[in-house]
Amino acid sequence: MMADRFDRMRAELPGSVALVEDWPAMLRAAGLTEVRARTFLVDHPAPVSDGVRQSVRGSLERCRTGLVEVLDAEDAAALDRLLDPADPAGVDRRPDLFLLTAKTVHFGRRPGS
């Protein structure tokens, strides 16, 4: 859903062109050399710390706010329930909450460095 939202947002910009986000190619086009990528696994099994719980909450809040115009009523209600601090099924109270994701970082060197 987020990718679709960004595609629509980009398409609405004046003079926009379709773009495949090929980060290595874009970094090379910017003049970087030795372009590489590294992916990091982020794994916080249940039970999570308060910091991880707040991170999950923040991510869901951003999704709820950013996708408000494309969520159907059932999905919006599910997110609202997950974000309700009083709901036992919400992220603030769930004992089974976990975080598993991957983050990819693309990098390269400036010539001569």
Secondary-structure map with pairings?
Layout: H1 2-11, H2 23-29, E1 33-44, H3 50-66, H4 73-83, E2 99-109
Antiparallel strand pairs: 1-2
Main sheet summary: 2 strands, antiparallel
How many strand units? 2
N→C terminal distance: 40 Å
Please provide the ordered H/E string of secondary-structure elements: HHEHHE
Unreliable runs, pLDDT <50, ≥5 residues?
Answer: none
Radius of gyration: 19 Å
What's the helix count? Answer: 4
**Main structural class:** alpha+beta
Percent of residues in helices: 25-40%
Integer average pLDDT:
90
Strand content: 15-25%
The neighbouring-strand order within the major sheet is: 1-2
Shape: flat
Primary descriptors:
2 strands, flat, 4 helices, alpha+beta, 113 residues
Q: What does this protein look like?
A:
Helices cover 40% and strands 20% of the residues. It is α+β, with helices and mostly antiparallel strands and 113 residues long. It has helices spanning 2-11, 23-29, 50-66, 73-83; strands at 33-44, 99-109. It is flat, with a radius of gyration of 19 Å. 3% of the residues are buried. It has a two-stranded antiparallel ribbon. The protein is built from 4 helices and 2 strands; from the N terminus they run H-H-E-H-H-E. The longest helix is centred in the middle third of the chain and has 17 residues, at 50-66.
